[in-house]
Amino acid sequence: MHFDYITPLLKDAKSKIVLLILDGLGGLPIEPDGPTELEAATTPNMDRLAAEGTLGQIIPIRPGITPGSGPAHLALFGYDPLEYIVGRGALEASGVGMQINPGDVAVRGNFCTLGADGNISDRRAGRIPSDEAAPLVEKLKSIKIEGIEIEIKHLREHRFAVVMRAPGLDPAIQDTDPQQTGLTPFPARATHKNAEPTADIFNHWIAEAGVLLADQPKANGVTLRGFGSDPDLPKFKSIYGLEAACAAVYPMYRGVSRLAGMQVLEFDGESPAEEFAAASNAWNDHDFFFIHIKKTDSKGEDGDFPGKVEIIESVDAALTDLLKLNPDVLIITGDHSTPARMRQHSWHPVPLLLWAPKLGLADRQSSFGERNCAMGGLGIFPATEIMPLALAHAGRLNKFGA
C-alpha cells in the first residue's frame, strides 16, 4: 500500500482507536454444519458490540494465500506485505531489544526434537518451558565463527533469535524448517548467488549447535526461520499522524510494532486483563493502541478446539475493562485464521468487528462469528484497508478532492 494518498487527508482529532488482534482468530467447524471456535464461544460482550457495530471479513495477503504472522501483521498496519518484505527474524530480534543494523542478518530459531534417523519428531521440542530453554541458549552462545559477530537471545519457550554481523552478509536464505514432522531439517539455502557465503556461515552455526545439543532429550536440534534485515518501514506517526502504542506479550509482535514506530508498553503478566490494564495505564499518552492476544493461535496450532474457545471467552470476559476506557473506534479481528481442525495457519478469510458508536452504521448482524461476518455490512476486503477505515470512523480524515 502506498501512503501518499492518505497522509494529506489527515486532520487533528482527540479520538482513540483500539486494534484488538486475537492471533489466528478465524476457524472452521470440526463437524459439518457445526460451529467454528468463535461461534462456539460464549461472548456476550463481543455479541453486543457486533449488534451495535458492523461486521466483515479481511483477506490478509491475497485470496487463497496462507500468511505467516509477520506479513499478516504488516497488512493489519496498512503495509502491503508484498511490497514490504520483512523477515520474521528481524521482527523477533527487534521485539527483545536486539539491535539490527543495515547489513546485519537476523533469524528466528526453534529448538526441535530429532529422532535417531535425523528426522523431526516435534517441531517445537514439546514447547519446552522458558526455564529449560534459556540455559540451552546460553550454551549456544559459545559458538564462535571467525570474522562474524554473533548475538543470540532467548525469546519464549522453544524460541530464540540470532543476529549475525559482518561485512557482505545477505539475508536471501530459505527457512530450514520443513514445517512438518517426519522430515530432516533443510540446510540453509541461498535464493541467489550473493547470499551463498551467508548460507554457508549459518550452516556452520547449525552444525555446531547440533553438537552442543546432541545429549538433550527434547531440544536436540534447531531450525531457523525468517532470515531478514532492517526493513526501514515508514513510521506510524508520519503515515497516520498517530501516537501509537503496543501491548503484546510475544517478541515478534512487539518487534513489528517497534519497527513500525510504536511505543512498546512494558507490563507484567500475559492475560487479556493485564494487557488491557497496560493500555489503560498509557491511555492519556497515545491515541492508537495495538493489543495482541497470542494464545488463540497457539491453541489452534495444537488442534485444541475447546482450548481456543476458552481463550476467546477469556478475552470477552475482560472486554468490560477495555470498554470502560470509551474508545471511539474498536476493531476486533485476527491476523489470519488458524483452525484447530487444520492445526496450522490457513487462507480462510478472517472475521472482523468494527465498533464506532459515534460514526458507525450498524448492520443487521447480532453476534460475532464467521458466518455472520460473511454477511456483514463491511463485506470482504483487504486487511491493508483496516487503518483507513479506523481513521475515518475516528473522525481523522478529510475528504479526498474538491
Please, could you describe this protein's structure?
30% of the residues lie in helices and 18% in strands. It is an alpha/beta fold and 402 residues long. The protein folds into two domains: 13-82 and 234-393, Alkaline Phosphatase, subunit A (3-Layer(aba) Sandwich); 90-228, Alpha-Beta Plaits, CATH 3.30.70. α4 (88-95) crosses α8 (251-259), α9 (272-281) runs parallel beside α11 and α10 (295-301) runs antiparallel to α11 (305-323). It starts with 16 loop residues before the first strand and ends in a 9-residue tail after the last helix.
Question: How would you describe the shape?
Answer: globular
Structural class by SSE content: alpha/beta
The stretches of 5 or more residues where confidence is low (pLDDT under 50) are none
How do the helices and strands follow one another from N- to C-terminus? Answer: EHHEHHEEHEEHEHEHEHEHHEEHEH
Please give the domain count: 2
Number of strands: 13
- Helices, by number, come to 13
Relative strand content? 15-25%
CATH fold-type name of the largest domain? Alkaline Phosphatase, subunit A
N→C terminal distance: 23 Å
CATH architecture of the largest domain: 3-Layer(aba) Sandwich
Mean pLDDT: 95
